[in-house]
Amino acid sequence: MKSWVCKGVAKDGQPRSNQSPPGPHDEFENFGTDCAICGLTQEQVEGGGGGAGLPIAKIAAAAAAALVIGGIGTGVLSRINPDPCQGNNPPPSCKIDPELYTWEPARFSWGQQTLFPGNASVPRTEGIEAFNQGDYAAAIDSFQRAVAGNRNDPEVLIFLNNARARQKGSPFRLAAVVPVDNATNSAQEMLRGIAQAQEEFNQSRGDGEPLLEIIIANDGNEPEVSKRVAEELVKDPSVLGVVGHNSSDASKAALESYQAAGLALISPTSTSTELSSDVFFRTVPSDTISAESLAQYAKEEMDISNVVIFYNPDSSFSRSLQSAFEKRFKDLGGTSSSQDMTDSEFDAGIAVATAASDDGAEAIVLFPNTDYRSVAIEIAKANARLQNRKLPLLGGDSLYSIDILKTGGASVDGLILAVSWFSGSGQFEAFSQASEKQWGGLVSWRTATSFDATQAFIKSLSSGANRSTVLDNLKQVSLPANETSGQAFEFTADGDRQSDPVLVKVSREQSAASGVEFGFELLLD
Q1: Sign of dihedral through CA atoms 387, 390, 393, 399?
Q2: Segments forming the whole domain that contains residue 147
Q3: 61-85 pLDDT, tens per residue?
Q4: Mean pLDDT, to the nearest integer, of 165-174?
């Protein structure tokens, strides 16, 4: 929906029973039906008369009189609509079982603690304290102020919506597993997409319709930790599905636990073709599709017949890209050789010079996993030193990062990548603009594919949802372009996303950020 601005004042100037806190506030741009600061609806602010009702004082007086007439006669009115998650005996859906998440509990959060202490603020801290006390109304008030103070923080927006979901009662629950420890930026990017989908869904719900709650888990992209995190999540019967993990190796380590529990996993970032299970889905093109697109472009558009591939044979992500590219390139009549970029005796300068002079390579293909991106930069710099003999560069989406532009500089100029999403492509423009308004800046492909993963889960929710119904519904999900980050999609029988990657190129003419000389431009949509 289009954005609208609220200043905390209804069109006719009268207070409303749904307004909390009452009174005017600074201008705030909203994207849902209710103001995130005060709760006024768009209709109440812009006109139409819906929900005008009586002023708050008259409603309170009438309600108090009704209580006395009804024989309660306490003389005190605390709430007209009591919070179902407060009191001595809240329903089970309002709380997380204290016997769950006992292994390294600091890795799990739904509002009771932060996983990003560097984003601390007074309202955020007050919101967490209120959430822990079960005072969700106070938590909502504090988290709203925290969101207004830092619109780029996805965790606090998730906390706000979790408090709303608890207050309403009987929420749907999903988990999001992200690498807070070792890849904080990637974790934040993923959570922005998840939080944006949660916000849109919760804002669209009517009376009596449950909201969505997100449990955030931190696996640090460490496979052993990922496995333990998955084991904790499957123990919680209220978790209906999981968005994550980030790396292919992390997803692979966790997948066995999800399979045994029948718990659906949608990864927005794990592309390895070695990931296969009845419960596994992804909203990013698989390595096969991305590598085949690169191979075809190299052979048919660049007229290249011989390439050298640098990869990590111990990474499922890197290995599957190498295998798929090699096969497709060979089918097209090309030849390739592959080198282990993780070898302890690997020398980028020697490897590149040898490939160019002795092996007759016409291009370099870089397929590092995230741990070896620095080695890929060394290879690119060694290639740049060849000057007139410099070879064209192609690569996988692990290199689709502003860090690569910063550290690689001119050495990565012209690098061609196959990626899942690009803000400069026309089909993704609407989502890109909406996200920029939501977060106050440009978002990454991880935000887009994480949004899509959450949307797929939301589409699979139904009254009385359980893990089995969610899993069955996911296999039938079909999302139009206006409900995704830009591309309509459905899942194949293997759980892959039916959509094509986008080819982009590093260019000096497209600065990615202030102080960064290079950026990405659309090569082939």
Answers
A1: negative
A2: 92-284+440-490
A3: 333 333 322 333 332 222 223 444 4
A4: 96
129 and 213 co-located in one domain = yes
pLDDT higher than 80, residue 481: yes
Distances (CA, A) of 207 to 20, 139, 204, 469: 17, 21, 10, 23
pTM: 0.77
Q: Residue count of the chain, please give it.
A: 525
Q: 490: which strand partners? A: 478
305: Cβ contacts below 8 Å, ≥ 6 apart: 299, 333, 334, 335, 362
In a domain, 408, yes or no: yes
Measure the CA–CA gap between 35 and 136, rounded to whole angstroms: 17
Q: How many whole angstroms separate alpha carbon 180 and alpha carbon 117?
A: 11
Of the candidates 409, 407, 394, the residue with the CA atom closest to the CA atom of residue 523: 394
At 243, the amino acid letter reads V
User: Backbone dihedral region of 272: left (phi > 0), alpha (psi from -120 to 50 degrees) or beta?
Assistant: beta
Whether omega before 22 lies within 30 degrees of 0, making that bond cis, reads no
Max CA separation in the chain (angstroms): 96
Question: Taking 90 as the threshold, does the pLDDT of residue 28 lie above it?
Answer: no
Contact 221, 183 (CB under 8 A): yes
Q: Is residue 271 part of a domain?
A: yes
Q: Which percentage of the chain shows pLDDT scores above 70?
A: 85
**How large is the C-alpha radius of gyration of the chain?**
26
Q: How many CB atoms lie within 10 A of CB 261?
A: 17
pLDDT tens digit string along 331-389? 999 999 999 999 999 999 999 999 999 899 999 999 999 889 999 999 999 999 998 88
Please report the sign of the dihedral spanned by the C-alpha atoms of residue 304, residue 336, residue 333, residue 520. Answer: negative
Q: In what order do the strands lie in the sheet with 335-340?
A: 335-340, 306-311, 363-367, 393-395, 416-419, 502-507, 519-524
Tell me, yes or no, whether 86 lies in a domain: no
Kindly report the CATH number assigned to the domain that includes residue 457: 3.40.50.2300
- Distance between CA atoms of residues 458 and 124, nearest Å: 27
The pLDDT mean for the chain works out to: 87
Q: Are 253 and 240 within one domain?
A: yes
